[in-house]
Amino acid sequence: MTHEWTVRIRPAQREPFVFEATFQGSGATRGVLDARYLYGDGDLAVFLEDLGADTPAIWRLLENLRATEAGEIEIAITEEAMEVLVREKKPSGGRR
Q1: Which domain holds residue 23?
Q2: Does residue 59 sit within a domain?
Q3: I need a surface site. Which of 19, 33, 40, 75 has the fewest CB within 10 A?
Q4: pLDDT grade, residue 66 (50/70/90)?
Q5: Considering only CA atoms, which of 2, 23, 22, 24 is closest in space to residue 11?
């Protein structure tokens, strides 16, 4: 099963990251996901590909980001990929 998500990319406000990815699900029951911070084009491309985005859509997004610094991509994210996203952001001990 998959859910449609819009992944919005904009410049990161945290160094040393270049991009910040935020998620908005259409009818998804998971709620809002924490932002992901990415180091650059390659990091962003691999991240989106792992979520299920196709290569032409990723290239279009990267071209758009060069022109406008912000963009979005629609991705049908599988339940398995969503579980990995949710699991990655669980607290790990006493770090704050």
Answers
A1: 2-88
A2: yes
A3: 40
A4: very high
A5: 22
